[in-house]
CpsD/CapB family tyrosine-protein kinase
Amino acid sequence: MDRLQQAISKARKEREASGGVTTSPAQSPRGVTAAQAAARQAVPPAGDVTARWAALNPLQVTSKTVRSNRLMAYTPGEAAIPFDMLRTKILQQARKNKWRRIAIVSSDSGAGKSTLAANLGFSFGRMRDKRTIILDFDLRRFGLGPILGVKPVAGMAEVLRGETSFADHALCHDGNVAYGLNRNRVQNPAELLQSPRTAEILNQIEQDYEPDLMFFDTPPLMVSDDSHGVLQSADCALLVAAAEVTPMDRIDVAERQLSELTNVMGIVLNRCRYNAGAHSYEGEYY
Ligand SMILES: Nc1ncnc2c1ncn2[C@@H]1O[C@H](COP(=O)(O)OP(=O)(O)OP(=O)(O)O)[C@@H](O)[C@H]1O
Ligand SMILES: [Mg+2]
């Protein structure tokens, strides 16, 4: 009998001896409920990245949220193509330059950063061999949660302060995209985002979950110094501008400011209104 058969036979005998019920040596005097036992089993062993991803809470997105909040990349198809094309360009650049952490920035509010971050998550989610983490670092307005139709129990500020773990906080889409969202307005975001503790927590998340890419949704560059802290931790930045809204000189200044802080991966011209052949594009990448 080989070792596997011996192990199966031993387990069978033990189960029969206990009347068919497997008992846990850690059982409390009052017993352990099935849910508690399942939760204990779900705690992944140290070093097991796959189990850590599998243990994350699922992200639930309703079809109403998808329709109302421009989550065009949620399902594959024509509407998702601009995001899939951007995904490929991002991957090429990231691979070439060995960049993993990408900040999504804009000069001013409303360029479409959070919507883009949410959609990139869904688009990258279809790359089954890739793991992606998307973190909302706009701690003043927490835009990404409402776009996904989610109000988490705690926010990324609590994760960065070490008050809650990323494992408990993150919401996972389709097993390979984890979103870290916000709940309430934070009083001192710039200090928190620039603190050494934030850098340590980010390193820990990266170590525990081994993402291929991490995207940081950020507050507008020219409105506060909040995003400067995020950019310290990023490898590069993707500058988002709203076509026909963000003036060229604002894009210029933002690009110059950005290049002093990190590598500029490219500019996404969002909200373009032109029709390129079969597909109606709403974004362009330079
Ligand atoms: N490609 C697009 N086409 C048309 N409207 C869009 C597009 N992307 C985003 N929007 C809309 O623009 C508005 C602002 O989007 P979003 O919140 O994503 O921007 P933001 O840059 O994150 O803003 P903030 O700086 O305030 O966080 C939303 O109403 C969103 O639905
Ligand atoms: Mg936003």
